[in-house]
């Protein structure tokens, strides 16, 4: 459907004003998946949105996850992901607004758009069955059920995976957006964190951005994702154990330790970014808020306002280190939904395998097989290089 075809405005109950003057508009795609538009405060878009009139296949059944008895980890087997788009030509960008020749996922021109992934690794969550989609047949029975070890254990991969489109433009990343647009995305992350945390069966919500083919990105369109897991992830489980073995205020201690050291990259009124003391990757950046907040929903408007420009400076500085854009994973770690809310602090971790202009770090024997990391670049050296690049960034 072309954006100029007849449109319908969402019902009044489907429109909501969020922080920073962002407007949220909720609708559905042709197969029942949720689509949410987040309009910039200075948007030039009208209130109406086109209807998704595509004739598309039904959604696949929810995936199944299997337990690895050697580690206790759960592995989601999501075969439908094999059919996802892989580096399509620009004229067939599935995240661009629909045109007569491009039946993409988003019917209308937009500022920021979020929609349920067509072939998710997790989900839909319990009680989210739409149309002919069956409900989860064997969902997890709580965290105690998931921590029990046994051979051949399976559960339905309840949860939800969403795509977050930062812009209708076909190329770019979060770092190429304006401060206003970055602020809109932050508002979208907070809104979606609250909504996804409330879904039955969801235990942790994870917003992230993969950038660059070296990371495995299959779409050039500027976008990120949000995964909602039916368990507490292995990385967070290890973090909770570290907190139990040290102190409930571990994150505050880390912040004060790094603020007094040589690896600080940026420090604002509400946020500090730094290269961590024991960085694993050639490029690794962490950022913490100055007070304890478990997730995006708990940030004040002032904290969100400062986050937009400071995060853009970090990403643009990262790209200024070399003559070409740097591949990275930008991972926003949030506290689990039901445990660790008073101890796990929202934090950003950016990692890149780029160890030189023309070299990448590959995870081989020690790292991949044993989880025993060997750093290629001293963290202090990496911090000096990043700090110099960030100093030249102009927003």
Automatic annotation (TrEMBL):
Residue intervals of the Galactose-1-phosphate uridyl transferase C-terminal domain: 260-388
Source superkingdom: Bacteria
InterPro entries reported in the protein's UniProt record: GalP_UDPtransf1, GalP_UDPtransf1_His-AS, GalP_Utransf_C, GalP_Utransf_N, HIT-like_sf
Required cofactor names: Zn(2+)
Top EC category: transferase
Pathway participation: Carbohydrate metabolism; galactose metabolism
SUPFAM superfamilies for this protein: HIT-like
Keyword field contains Lyase: no
EC number: 2.7.7.12
One Pfam family named in its UniProt record: GalP_UDP_transf
Domain Galactose-1-phosphate uridyl transferase N-terminal stretches: 151-232
Catalytic activity: alpha-D-galactose 1-phosphate + UDP-alpha-D-glucose = alpha-D-glucose 1-phosphate + UDP-alpha-D-galactose
Family: Belongs to the galactose-1-phosphate uridylyltransferase type 1 family.
Record protein name field: Galactose-1-phosphate uridylyltransferase
Protein's organism: Microbacterium memoriense
